[in-house]
Input
Amino acid sequence: MLDFTGKVALVTGAGSVGEGWGNGKATAVLLARQGAQVCGVDLSAEALAATTAIMQAEAMGDRWLALTCNMTASEQVKRVVDQCLARFGRIDVLVNNVGGSAPGDPVSMPQEVWQAQLDLNLTTAFLACKHVLPVMEAQFDAGGTGGAIVNIGSVGSHSFQLGGRVSAGYAAAKAGLEAFGRSTAIAYVRKGIRVNTVVPGSMHTPLVEHRLVKQLGAADAAALIAKRHAAVPMGFMGDAWDVANAVAFLASDAARYITATQLIVDGGMTAARSA
Ligand SMILES: NC(=O)c1ccc[n+]([C@@H]2O[C@H](COP(=O)([O-])OP(=O)(O)OC[C@H]3O[C@@H](n4cnc5c(N)ncnc54)[C@H](O)[C@@H]3O)[C@@H](O)[C@H]2O)c1
Output
């Protein structure tokens, strides 16, 4: 078990699109279980309420702050950073988890959808970093530790297209997120701040039932899920805890010498496809 006692984590997209465990929700709960004070941000008050109920049921409510925010709006992001600081006094960990895919190639995808994909998957991380990096840098300049930032990418930006479909905006944005992470990591490498990206493969989060089944038009959700399991070399999709555990490691002091890199969490999918 990693120890986050005394650390403050800001996790974006800390709810989940449906019942069960999304990546941000599992990450927020895992960091809290390991001792962190956690500020969870989400667009959906309802999704956040479900995470709050878990925090309270596990007697972690006093170390939890839930804030609704549209992470694509700079002034709202600034507000949650200020509220997190007012409640907990510092920010040691930032998890840029907000994201989601929309299908389409450059011809089929309207420009508004393309722009919305870049905003959701890339600009959200940019804005969080814009407002959190000065906080972490000030902590470092004051003689303390700076911080750790973990982005959530996707193997969809490497080679794998979910269900065989093309999601050009998502792929571009998630590839950009990795590059943004490396670039920011080097910019802050002497300021006590590490930046890395976890790159999940095909994960069985509530998003599969709620969004992909609709997007892919699969009449039979069970068939789609079986297909997704079978497409993974390990023979099964990962889940939100596989992502959360990778995030926790990269955010922890155990990863103190790791920055500007990607941790692929995909059951062997990327290697099998490039073999
Ligand atoms: N599930 C997978 O198979 C998979 C695979 C690779 C990468 N990912 C990535 O993991 C991340 C989380 O995925 P998930 O499956 O847990 O999805 P999810 O939709 O369940 O969770 C995302 C949360 O973000 C919130 N959100 C959406 N837009 C927001 C905004 N503008 N501001 C604030 N909050 C907002 C949603 O309300 C939701 O609670 C995403 O970045 C996704 O691209 C997921």
